[in-house]
Amino acid sequence: MLSSIQSKKGGGMTTATIGFLPERLTQAREARELSLTALSDLLEVSKAAISNYEKGINKPTHNTLQDISNKLNLPLNFFLKPNSVVNNSARIFYRAMSSVTKSARKRAERRFEWLKEIILYLKEYLDFPEVNLPVFDVPKDFRKITDNMIEKYAENLRDYWNLGLSPIADVIKIIESNGVFVSCGSLGVETLDAFSELDNGIPYVFLGSDKNLLARSRFDAGHELGHIIMHSAIDKSTLNTASDFKIIEEQAHHFSASFLLPSQSFVNELWGVSLDSFRSLRSKWKISIAAMISRAKQLELINEGEAKRLWINRNRRGWREFEPLDDLPTERPKMLANAFNVLLKNSVKTKEQILDDLSLTANDIEELANLPKGFFYGEEEYKLPRIKKRGNIVLLQ
Fold it and tell me: How far is 383 from 190, CA to CA, in rounded Å?
């Protein structure tokens, strides 16, 4: 229940909300990718007023907070609930960081904080798989990581997880079962595909669903896994130049290709270095033809000139935007969705209690936890009355 205090201002009485948390307003605004000006226009109040709310100089009245709640599409209690997650954006690795707008990054970071809050909530009631990642002797200076080291890291991870040299049936399932929290949702911008973080030993991967391509999603998952394996000690703020960022991105690309398509298997199965031979391997390995061209060059099966000709021919076939078999269903995270179902099945919580506890909208929770749309407000199953038993015989049910 909201509490309020009355104060005299301008000859009248205003009611300020007790318990209002300024940081929650900033978080909500950035999660909805709104500037101070845009929110002030929506609320029809001054930009200075919004700024003062976020700085904690003033508190909004009950009516204003209700309006904020409606415009930002968040429960009113969200703005009164302490944030249990510390923003650790300096350790988040983005794909295409340089080309992503600041507002898009902020939106991703804020929604990522909500994801972590959801996970912390679920951890109060459930045990998740332990983190099961090997510790490699990775050079502290990322510039000293060689291609041979990356091949070895990927090979050793496969051995550690007992994957052998065969195709991985479901990359996301394997990652989740080894203690990595994975979410998949819209990032709302073309140039932001995925991001990851290792926070206090807990690995997180967020995959963009905007392109919704199976091979792309699998490669992105492997890419972010590469960052977690090789770059966990790097503070993003130390990447001062585009060339530094390019190095770690290329390393993560190499790791993903090595992890998803082991060199021995690739060489043994490749009956020719051509687009047709790559296409024949797509359905089995579920990796893009583009990635196979790059992999062939990594393994020195082709030189720069041959790779260039393959890229040109790939474009001529119209495969630049959409390759054959790109319409296969994508792999989806299931761990968090299963966790919510366990709570409900065991009557630990009701759907209404979950929504109230988390103080987020049903849509936000459904997307972040990869629950089916309408999970919280879909048609409920009613428990019907039952006919009384006569002795040991059930007459009707």
Answer: 46
